[in-house]
Specification:
about 500 residues; alpha/beta; 2 domains; transmembrane; transmembrane helix; YejM_N; membrane; DUF3413 domain-containing protein
Protein backbone atom coordinates (compact mmCIF):
# COMPACT_ATOMS: atom_id res chain seq x y z
CA UNK A 1 0.00 0.00 0.00
CA UNK A 2 2.69 2.44 0.92
CA UNK A 3 4.71 1.48 -2.12
CA UNK A 4 1.69 2.04 -4.32
CA UNK A 5 1.13 5.47 -2.83
CA UNK A 6 4.79 6.27 -3.32
CA UNK A 7 4.60 5.23 -6.95
CA UNK A 8 1.53 7.39 -7.45
CA UNK A 9 3.29 10.30 -5.77
CA UNK A 10 6.38 9.82 -7.94
CA UNK A 11 4.27 9.57 -11.09
CA UNK A 12 2.53 12.87 -10.39
CA UNK A 13 5.83 14.56 -9.59
CA UNK A 14 7.37 13.18 -12.78
CA UNK A 15 4.45 14.40 -14.88
CA UNK A 16 4.59 17.83 -13.28
CA UNK A 17 8.31 18.12 -13.96
CA UNK A 18 7.78 17.20 -17.60
CA UNK A 19 4.96 19.70 -17.80
CA UNK A 20 7.09 22.32 -16.04
CA UNK A 21 9.81 22.07 -18.69
CA UNK A 22 7.28 22.57 -21.51
CA UNK A 23 5.62 25.42 -19.62
CA UNK A 24 9.04 27.02 -19.18
CA UNK A 25 9.74 26.79 -22.92
CA UNK A 26 6.47 28.60 -23.60
CA UNK A 27 7.53 31.35 -21.20
CA UNK A 28 10.96 31.59 -22.80
CA UNK A 29 9.18 32.58 -26.00
CA UNK A 30 7.18 35.25 -24.16
CA UNK A 31 10.25 36.60 -22.35
CA UNK A 32 12.20 36.77 -25.62
CA UNK A 33 9.39 38.84 -27.10
CA UNK A 34 9.28 41.25 -24.14
CA UNK A 35 13.06 41.59 -23.96
CA UNK A 36 13.24 42.76 -27.58
CA UNK A 37 12.48 46.24 -26.21
CA UNK A 38 15.90 46.30 -24.50
CA UNK A 39 17.62 45.83 -27.86
CA UNK A 40 15.84 48.87 -29.30
CA UNK A 41 16.44 51.11 -26.26
CA UNK A 42 20.04 51.93 -27.23
CA UNK A 43 21.87 52.46 -30.50
CA UNK A 44 22.50 49.12 -32.25
CA UNK A 45 25.97 47.60 -32.70
CA UNK A 46 27.78 48.61 -35.87
CA UNK A 47 29.90 45.51 -36.47
CA UNK A 48 28.96 41.95 -37.46
CA UNK A 49 30.43 40.56 -34.22
CA UNK A 50 28.48 43.12 -32.22
CA UNK A 51 25.23 42.07 -33.90
CA UNK A 52 26.05 38.38 -33.43
CA UNK A 53 26.83 38.91 -29.75
CA UNK A 54 23.59 40.85 -29.25
CA UNK A 55 21.60 38.00 -30.83
CA UNK A 56 23.18 35.09 -28.94
CA UNK A 57 23.16 36.98 -25.63
CA UNK A 58 19.50 37.90 -26.08
CA UNK A 59 18.63 34.24 -26.74
CA UNK A 60 20.77 32.69 -24.00
CA UNK A 61 20.52 35.22 -21.19
CA UNK A 62 16.76 35.68 -21.27
CA UNK A 63 16.28 31.91 -21.51
CA UNK A 64 18.61 31.39 -18.59
CA UNK A 65 16.70 33.87 -16.42
CA UNK A 66 13.40 32.18 -17.27
CA UNK A 67 14.76 28.72 -16.49
CA UNK A 68 16.23 29.86 -13.17
CA UNK A 69 12.85 31.35 -12.23
CA UNK A 70 11.27 27.95 -12.90
CA UNK A 71 13.93 26.14 -10.83
CA UNK A 72 13.41 28.49 -7.86
CA UNK A 73 9.60 28.44 -7.87
CA UNK A 74 7.69 25.74 -9.75
CA UNK A 75 10.31 22.99 -9.48
CA UNK A 76 10.45 22.73 -5.66
CA UNK A 77 6.67 23.08 -5.38
CA UNK A 78 6.21 20.21 -7.80
CA UNK A 79 8.31 17.96 -5.56
CA UNK A 80 6.79 18.80 -2.19
CA UNK A 81 3.21 19.52 -3.31
CA UNK A 82 2.49 17.42 -6.44
CA UNK A 83 -1.12 18.41 -7.06
CA UNK A 84 -1.41 19.32 -10.77
CA UNK A 85 -4.33 21.75 -10.66
CA UNK A 86 -2.87 23.80 -7.79
CA UNK A 87 0.66 23.77 -9.18
CA UNK A 88 -0.48 24.86 -12.64
CA UNK A 89 -2.52 27.72 -11.16
CA UNK A 90 0.32 28.91 -8.95
CA UNK A 91 2.76 28.62 -11.86
CA UNK A 92 0.52 30.81 -14.02
CA UNK A 93 0.37 33.45 -11.25
CA UNK A 94 4.15 33.36 -10.65
CA UNK A 95 4.87 33.59 -14.37
CA UNK A 96 2.43 36.49 -14.79
CA UNK A 97 4.12 38.39 -11.96
CA UNK A 98 7.56 37.72 -13.42
CA UNK A 99 6.64 38.70 -16.98
CA UNK A 100 4.82 41.82 -15.77
CA UNK A 101 7.86 42.85 -13.71
CA UNK A 102 10.08 42.33 -16.75
CA UNK A 103 7.75 44.50 -18.82
CA UNK A 104 7.94 47.25 -16.20
CA UNK A 105 11.74 46.99 -16.09
CA UNK A 106 11.89 47.23 -19.89
CA UNK A 107 9.73 50.37 -19.81
CA UNK A 108 11.92 51.98 -17.13
CA UNK A 109 15.12 51.10 -18.98
CA UNK A 110 13.76 52.44 -22.26
CA UNK A 111 12.94 55.79 -20.64
CA UNK A 112 15.64 56.23 -17.96
CA UNK A 113 18.56 54.09 -19.10
CA UNK A 114 18.81 51.91 -15.99
CA UNK A 115 16.99 48.90 -14.60
CA UNK A 116 14.71 48.72 -11.57
CA UNK A 117 16.67 49.31 -8.38
CA UNK A 118 15.91 50.64 -4.93
CA UNK A 119 18.24 53.64 -5.13
CA UNK A 120 16.42 55.01 -8.19
CA UNK A 121 12.95 54.38 -6.78
CA UNK A 122 11.97 58.10 -6.54
CA UNK A 123 12.74 58.73 -10.21
CA UNK A 124 10.99 55.52 -11.26
CA UNK A 125 7.90 56.50 -9.27
CA UNK A 126 8.04 59.99 -10.83
CA UNK A 127 8.18 58.46 -14.32
CA UNK A 128 5.23 56.18 -13.66
CA UNK A 129 3.22 58.90 -11.90
CA UNK A 130 3.79 61.32 -14.76
CA UNK A 131 2.60 58.69 -17.23
CA UNK A 132 -0.46 57.94 -15.10
CA UNK A 133 -1.48 61.56 -14.52
CA UNK A 134 -0.88 62.65 -18.12
CA UNK A 135 -3.41 60.10 -19.45
CA UNK A 136 -4.90 58.12 -16.56
CA UNK A 137 -7.58 56.24 -18.49
CA UNK A 138 -5.29 55.17 -21.32
CA UNK A 139 -2.42 54.25 -18.99
CA UNK A 140 -4.65 52.18 -16.73
CA UNK A 141 -6.19 50.45 -19.73
CA UNK A 142 -2.81 49.65 -21.27
CA UNK A 143 -1.20 48.47 -18.02
CA UNK A 144 -4.20 46.37 -17.04
CA UNK A 145 -4.53 45.03 -20.57
CA UNK A 146 -0.88 43.95 -20.67
CA UNK A 147 -1.16 42.12 -17.34
CA UNK A 148 -4.40 40.41 -18.39
CA UNK A 149 -2.90 39.36 -21.74
CA UNK A 150 0.11 37.89 -19.96
CA UNK A 151 -2.14 36.06 -17.49
CA UNK A 152 -4.33 34.72 -20.32
CA UNK A 153 -1.23 33.47 -22.10
CA UNK A 154 -0.03 31.74 -18.92
CA UNK A 155 -3.37 29.98 -18.39
CA UNK A 156 -3.47 28.87 -22.01
CA UNK A 157 0.15 27.64 -21.95
CA UNK A 158 -0.39 25.89 -18.61
CA UNK A 159 -3.55 24.04 -19.69
CA UNK A 160 -2.45 23.26 -23.24
CA UNK A 161 0.89 21.75 -22.21
CA UNK A 162 -0.78 19.67 -19.47
CA UNK A 163 -3.57 18.27 -21.62
CA UNK A 164 -1.23 17.51 -24.53
CA UNK A 165 1.70 16.41 -22.42
CA UNK A 166 2.07 12.92 -23.93
CA UNK A 167 2.06 14.21 -27.51
CA UNK A 168 4.36 17.17 -26.79
CA UNK A 169 6.90 14.89 -25.09
CA UNK A 170 7.28 12.97 -28.35
CA UNK A 171 8.51 16.06 -30.20
CA UNK A 172 12.26 16.62 -30.37
CA UNK A 173 11.86 20.40 -30.41
CA UNK A 174 12.71 20.83 -26.73
CA UNK A 175 15.92 18.84 -27.14
CA UNK A 176 17.06 20.83 -30.17
CA UNK A 177 16.05 24.15 -28.57
CA UNK A 178 17.96 23.29 -25.40
CA UNK A 179 21.07 22.47 -27.43
CA UNK A 180 20.76 25.75 -29.35
CA UNK A 181 20.41 27.78 -26.16
CA UNK A 182 23.44 26.06 -24.61
CA UNK A 183 25.49 26.84 -27.72
CA UNK A 184 24.33 30.48 -27.61
CA UNK A 185 25.21 30.67 -23.91
CA UNK A 186 28.75 29.41 -24.57
CA UNK A 187 29.14 31.68 -27.62
CA UNK A 188 28.00 34.79 -25.78
CA UNK A 189 30.54 34.36 -22.99
CA UNK A 190 33.33 33.37 -25.38
CA UNK A 191 32.69 36.41 -27.58
CA UNK A 192 32.59 38.67 -24.52
CA UNK A 193 35.91 37.27 -23.24
CA UNK A 194 37.49 37.93 -26.64
CA UNK A 195 35.96 41.43 -26.87
CA UNK A 196 37.01 42.32 -23.32
CA UNK A 197 40.60 41.29 -24.05
CA UNK A 198 40.76 43.06 -27.41
CA UNK A 199 38.88 46.23 -26.41
CA UNK A 200 35.95 45.69 -28.77
CA UNK A 201 33.63 48.28 -27.28
CA UNK A 202 30.91 47.55 -29.82
CA UNK A 203 30.42 44.29 -27.90
CA UNK A 204 31.29 45.21 -24.32
CA UNK A 205 29.05 48.30 -24.41
CA UNK A 206 26.11 45.86 -24.27
CA UNK A 207 27.07 44.68 -20.77
CA UNK A 208 24.28 46.46 -18.94
CA UNK A 209 21.48 46.17 -21.50
CA UNK A 210 19.67 43.04 -20.31
CA UNK A 211 18.45 42.77 -16.70
CA UNK A 212 20.47 40.75 -14.17
CA UNK A 213 23.31 40.66 -16.68
CA UNK A 214 26.76 40.03 -15.27
CA UNK A 215 28.89 39.07 -18.28
CA UNK A 216 31.84 36.83 -17.69
CA UNK A 217 35.19 38.53 -18.25
CA UNK A 218 38.53 36.81 -18.20
CA UNK A 219 41.06 39.48 -17.41
CA UNK A 220 42.75 37.42 -14.70
CA UNK A 221 42.47 34.18 -16.68
CA UNK A 222 44.02 35.62 -19.83
CA UNK A 223 46.67 37.55 -17.92
CA UNK A 224 47.65 34.39 -16.04
CA UNK A 225 48.25 32.68 -19.37
CA UNK A 226 50.09 35.66 -20.92
CA UNK A 227 47.29 36.20 -23.43
CA UNK A 228 46.38 39.74 -22.38
CA UNK A 229 48.21 42.99 -22.94
CA UNK A 230 47.82 44.32 -19.38
CA UNK A 231 49.14 47.79 -20.19
CA UNK A 232 46.74 48.26 -23.10
CA UNK A 233 43.84 46.87 -21.08
CA UNK A 234 44.43 49.07 -18.05
CA UNK A 235 44.96 52.14 -20.20
CA UNK A 236 41.62 51.62 -21.95
CA UNK A 237 39.80 50.89 -18.68
CA UNK A 238 41.36 53.73 -16.70
CA UNK A 239 38.69 56.39 -16.40
CA UNK A 240 40.97 59.06 -14.96
CA UNK A 241 41.60 62.06 -17.16
CA UNK A 242 44.90 63.87 -17.40
CA UNK A 243 43.88 67.52 -17.45
CA UNK A 244 47.38 68.96 -17.33
CA UNK A 245 48.53 70.87 -20.43
CA UNK A 246 45.48 70.00 -22.51
CA UNK A 247 45.98 71.33 -26.02
CA UNK A 248 43.20 72.30 -28.37
CA UNK A 249 43.67 71.32 -32.00
CA UNK A 250 41.29 73.15 -34.31
CA UNK A 251 39.69 71.04 -37.05
CA UNK A 252 41.08 71.66 -40.52
CA UNK A 253 40.04 72.53 -43.08
CA UNK A 254 37.00 74.40 -41.80
CA UNK A 255 33.87 73.67 -43.81
CA UNK A 256 32.30 76.50 -45.78
CA UNK A 257 28.79 77.65 -45.04
CA UNK A 258 27.40 77.71 -48.57
CA UNK A 259 23.75 78.07 -47.56
CA UNK A 260 24.13 80.67 -44.82
CA UNK A 261 20.77 82.01 -43.63
CA UNK A 262 20.74 85.49 -42.08
CA UNK A 263 19.16 85.21 -38.64
CA UNK A 264 19.45 86.78 -35.21
CA UNK A 265 19.56 84.83 -31.97
CA UNK A 266 19.48 86.30 -28.46
CA UNK A 267 20.73 84.08 -25.63
CA UNK A 268 19.87 85.64 -22.29
CA UNK A 269 21.78 84.42 -19.24
CA UNK A 270 20.33 85.45 -15.87
CA UNK A 271 22.19 85.48 -12.58
CA UNK A 272 19.19 84.29 -10.57
CA UNK A 273 16.22 82.01 -11.13
CA UNK A 274 13.81 84.65 -9.81
CA UNK A 275 14.94 87.18 -12.43
CA UNK A 276 14.44 84.56 -15.15
CA UNK A 277 10.97 83.76 -13.86
CA UNK A 278 9.95 87.43 -13.84
CA UNK A 279 11.29 87.86 -17.38
CA UNK A 280 9.34 84.82 -18.57
CA UNK A 281 6.15 86.21 -17.03
CA UNK A 282 6.58 89.33 -19.16
CA UNK A 283 7.13 87.24 -22.31
CA UNK A 284 4.39 84.65 -22.11
CA UNK A 285 5.10 83.31 -25.62
CA UNK A 286 8.27 81.60 -24.36
CA UNK A 287 8.17 77.81 -24.12
CA UNK A 288 9.69 76.07 -21.08
CA UNK A 289 11.56 72.86 -20.36
CA UNK A 290 13.23 71.67 -17.14
CA UNK A 291 15.86 69.63 -18.99
CA UNK A 292 18.81 72.05 -19.19
CA UNK A 293 21.84 70.34 -17.63
CA UNK A 294 24.62 72.82 -16.87
CA UNK A 295 27.76 72.98 -14.73
CA UNK A 296 27.21 74.87 -11.49
CA UNK A 297 30.56 76.62 -12.08
CA UNK A 298 29.46 79.74 -13.95
CA UNK A 299 32.56 80.25 -16.07
CA UNK A 300 32.46 76.61 -17.20
CA UNK A 301 28.79 76.93 -18.18
CA UNK A 302 29.44 80.15 -20.12
CA UNK A 303 32.46 78.66 -21.87
CA UNK A 304 30.36 75.71 -22.98
CA UNK A 305 27.62 78.05 -24.18
CA UNK A 306 29.97 80.25 -26.23
CA UNK A 307 32.35 77.66 -27.69
CA UNK A 308 30.06 74.65 -27.91
CA UNK A 309 32.75 72.68 -26.08
CA UNK A 310 33.23 71.28 -22.56
CA UNK A 311 35.41 73.29 -20.13
CA UNK A 312 38.07 70.60 -20.64
CA UNK A 313 39.40 72.94 -23.36
CA UNK A 314 38.92 76.15 -21.39
CA UNK A 315 42.54 76.66 -20.24
CA UNK A 316 43.93 76.23 -23.76
CA UNK A 317 41.41 78.55 -25.44
CA UNK A 318 40.89 81.26 -22.81
CA UNK A 319 44.59 81.69 -21.97
CA UNK A 320 45.31 82.59 -25.57
CA UNK A 321 41.96 84.40 -25.93
CA UNK A 322 41.20 82.27 -28.98
CA UNK A 323 37.93 83.02 -30.72
CA UNK A 324 35.48 80.17 -31.28
CA UNK A 325 36.25 78.27 -34.47
CA UNK A 326 32.67 78.54 -35.67
CA UNK A 327 32.52 82.36 -35.65
CA UNK A 328 33.36 84.60 -38.60
CA UNK A 329 32.07 87.89 -39.97
CA UNK A 330 28.80 86.34 -41.12
CA UNK A 331 28.54 84.01 -38.14
CA UNK A 332 29.30 86.87 -35.76
CA UNK A 333 28.89 86.91 -32.00
CA UNK A 334 28.65 89.55 -29.30
CA UNK A 335 29.04 88.79 -25.59
CA UNK A 336 28.09 91.55 -23.18
CA UNK A 337 28.18 91.68 -19.40
CA UNK A 338 30.73 88.91 -18.83
CA UNK A 339 34.20 90.35 -18.34
CA UNK A 340 35.98 87.00 -18.70
CA UNK A 341 34.71 86.73 -22.27
CA UNK A 342 34.92 90.34 -23.42
CA UNK A 343 37.55 89.36 -26.04
CA UNK A 344 34.97 87.26 -27.89
CA UNK A 345 33.11 90.14 -29.56
CA UNK A 346 33.51 90.17 -33.32
CA UNK A 347 30.92 92.85 -34.02
CA UNK A 348 28.57 95.32 -32.35
CA UNK A 349 25.68 93.91 -30.34
CA UNK A 350 22.89 95.03 -32.67
CA UNK A 351 24.62 93.63 -35.75
CA UNK A 352 25.68 90.28 -34.30
CA UNK A 353 24.05 87.13 -35.56
CA UNK A 354 24.26 85.68 -32.05
CA UNK A 355 24.11 87.89 -28.97
CA UNK A 356 24.82 86.49 -25.48
CA UNK A 357 23.75 88.86 -22.72
CA UNK A 358 24.16 89.03 -18.97
CA UNK A 359 20.46 89.77 -18.55
CA UNK A 360 18.07 90.91 -15.88
CA UNK A 361 14.28 90.96 -15.80
CA UNK A 362 14.17 94.37 -17.51
CA UNK A 363 16.36 93.31 -20.48
CA UNK A 364 14.80 94.06 -23.85
CA UNK A 365 15.09 91.81 -26.88
CA UNK A 366 16.42 93.07 -30.18
CA UNK A 367 13.79 94.25 -32.61
CA UNK A 368 12.97 91.52 -35.10
CA UNK A 369 15.01 88.85 -33.31
CA UNK A 370 14.36 85.41 -34.79
CA UNK A 371 15.03 83.11 -31.85
CA UNK A 372 15.47 83.54 -28.10
CA UNK A 373 16.96 81.31 -25.40
CA UNK A 374 16.81 82.27 -21.72
CA UNK A 375 18.14 80.48 -18.66
CA UNK A 376 19.71 81.29 -15.31
CA UNK A 377 23.11 80.22 -14.05
CA UNK A 378 22.99 77.45 -11.48
CA UNK A 379 22.69 78.46 -7.83
CA UNK A 380 23.58 75.03 -6.37
CA UNK A 381 26.98 75.24 -4.68
CA UNK A 382 27.35 71.65 -3.43
CA UNK A 383 27.22 69.83 -6.76
CA UNK A 384 28.95 69.68 -10.14
CA UNK A 385 25.97 69.85 -12.47
CA UNK A 386 22.39 70.91 -12.07
CA UNK A 387 19.19 70.59 -14.10
CA UNK A 388 17.37 73.89 -14.48
CA UNK A 389 14.65 75.56 -16.60
CA UNK A 390 15.25 76.74 -20.15
CA UNK A 391 12.92 79.09 -22.01
CA UNK A 392 12.87 79.40 -25.78
CA UNK A 393 10.75 80.82 -28.57
CA UNK A 394 11.40 77.53 -30.40
CA UNK A 395 8.84 74.99 -29.19
CA UNK A 396 10.68 72.16 -30.96
CA UNK A 397 13.71 72.76 -28.74
CA UNK A 398 11.70 72.64 -25.52
CA UNK A 399 10.00 69.42 -26.65
CA UNK A 400 13.34 67.71 -27.19
CA UNK A 401 13.53 64.30 -25.53
CA UNK A 402 16.25 64.04 -22.90
CA UNK A 403 18.76 66.50 -21.49
CA UNK A 404 19.95 69.71 -23.13
CA UNK A 405 23.35 71.28 -22.46
CA UNK A 406 24.48 74.90 -23.00
CA UNK A 407 26.74 73.71 -25.81
CA UNK A 408 23.63 72.41 -27.61
CA UNK A 409 22.16 75.92 -27.70
CA UNK A 410 25.05 77.37 -29.67
CA UNK A 411 25.22 74.28 -31.89
CA UNK A 412 21.52 74.63 -32.70
CA UNK A 413 21.91 78.37 -33.33
CA UNK A 414 24.79 77.92 -35.78
CA UNK A 415 23.72 74.62 -37.29
CA UNK A 416 19.97 75.20 -37.61
CA UNK A 417 19.12 78.89 -37.50
CA UNK A 418 22.18 80.10 -39.46
CA UNK A 419 22.07 76.94 -41.59
CA UNK A 420 25.75 76.09 -41.06
CA UNK A 421 25.29 72.48 -40.00
CA UNK A 422 28.68 71.21 -41.21
CA UNK A 423 30.57 73.90 -39.31
CA UNK A 424 28.64 73.23 -36.09
CA UNK A 425 29.25 69.49 -36.37
CA UNK A 426 32.93 69.94 -37.21
CA UNK A 427 33.86 72.48 -34.53
CA UNK A 428 31.64 71.66 -31.53
CA UNK A 429 30.68 68.80 -29.25
CA UNK A 430 27.29 70.40 -28.73
CA UNK A 431 24.40 68.82 -30.65
CA UNK A 432 21.97 70.47 -33.03
CA UNK A 433 18.73 69.70 -31.17
CA UNK A 434 16.86 69.38 -34.46
CA UNK A 435 19.02 66.36 -35.34
CA UNK A 436 19.53 64.88 -31.89
CA UNK A 437 19.84 61.10 -31.95
CA UNK A 438 20.02 59.22 -28.68
CA UNK A 439 20.13 60.67 -25.21
CA UNK A 440 23.82 60.68 -24.34
CA UNK A 441 26.37 63.42 -23.83
CA UNK A 442 29.63 64.48 -22.21
CA UNK A 443 30.85 67.53 -20.31
CA UNK A 444 33.61 68.58 -17.94
CA UNK A 445 33.72 70.98 -15.01
CA UNK A 446 35.90 71.65 -11.96
CA UNK A 447 38.18 68.75 -12.79
CA UNK A 448 35.27 66.29 -13.00
CA UNK A 449 34.40 64.28 -16.08
CA UNK A 450 30.64 64.20 -16.74
CA UNK A 451 28.84 61.67 -18.91
CA UNK A 452 25.10 61.15 -19.08
CA UNK A 453 22.90 58.48 -20.60
CA UNK A 454 19.18 59.24 -20.36
CA UNK A 455 18.53 60.09 -16.69
CA UNK A 456 21.76 58.61 -15.34
CA UNK A 457 24.73 60.97 -14.91
CA UNK A 458 28.18 59.60 -14.10
CA UNK A 459 30.68 61.92 -12.39
CA UNK A 460 34.36 60.93 -12.18
CA UNK A 461 36.95 63.13 -10.47
CA UNK A 462 40.68 63.32 -11.21
CA UNK A 463 41.42 60.64 -8.59
CA UNK A 464 39.12 58.13 -10.26
CA UNK A 465 36.35 58.41 -7.65
CA UNK A 466 32.93 58.18 -9.19
CA UNK A 467 29.22 58.30 -8.49
CA UNK A 468 26.04 57.95 -10.50
CA UNK A 469 23.20 60.40 -9.94
CA UNK A 470 19.74 61.01 -11.33
CA UNK A 471 19.56 64.04 -13.60
CA UNK A 472 15.97 64.87 -12.67
CA UNK A 473 16.12 64.39 -8.90
CA UNK A 474 19.84 64.53 -8.06
CA UNK A 475 19.89 61.45 -5.79
CA UNK A 476 22.66 58.84 -5.98
CA UNK A 477 22.12 55.67 -8.01
CA UNK A 478 23.77 52.49 -6.77
CA UNK A 479 25.22 51.19 -10.01
CA UNK A 480 28.70 50.22 -11.13
CA UNK A 481 30.71 51.93 -13.82
CA UNK A 482 29.65 51.28 -17.39
CA UNK A 483 33.23 51.02 -18.65
CA UNK A 484 32.54 50.73 -22.41
CA UNK A 485 30.18 53.72 -22.37
CA UNK A 486 32.66 55.80 -20.36
CA UNK A 487 35.59 54.85 -22.61
CA UNK A 488 33.61 56.01 -25.64
CA UNK A 489 32.57 59.19 -23.82
CA UNK A 490 36.15 60.05 -22.91
CA UNK A 491 37.17 59.48 -26.52
CA UNK A 492 34.46 61.93 -27.57
CA UNK A 493 35.58 64.49 -24.96
CA UNK A 494 39.12 64.38 -26.34
CA UNK A 495 38.04 64.86 -29.96
CA UNK A 496 40.02 68.08 -30.32
CA UNK A 497 43.25 67.02 -28.65
CA UNK A 498 46.33 65.92 -30.60
Amino acid sequence: MNLSQHNQFSSKASQLLSWGHLFTFANIGLVLLISLSYLFADSPPTSFMGMLYMLVTWLSHTSFITFIAFVLTVFPLSLIFPYPRHIRGMAAIFATCGASLLTLDAYVYFNLGYHLNSSALPEIITLLWHRLTSSPALTTLLAGGIVMLIFAFQLFASNYTWHHLARLKQYKFARYASSLLLVCFAMSHSIHIWADANLKFDITKQDNVLPLSYPTTAKSLLAKNDLLDIESYEQAHNVKLNTQNVDYTAPTPIARCEDFTPATVDILVFSSASALTNFAKRHKYLNKTEQLLQPVHHQDALFSLIYGLPAYYKPALMTEQTLPVWQSNRRSINVSGFDDFSYINSTAADGAAIRIINADESTELREGVNQVFAFSLAEVAHSIVSASPLYSTDSKVTRTEGLIQPSDLIATSVGQYLNCADIAKQSMLGVNLYNKKGDMGVNYSQGVFIAYKKDRITLIDSDGNYKNISAAQGFSIEQGLDIPFLAQSIKKLKTFTE
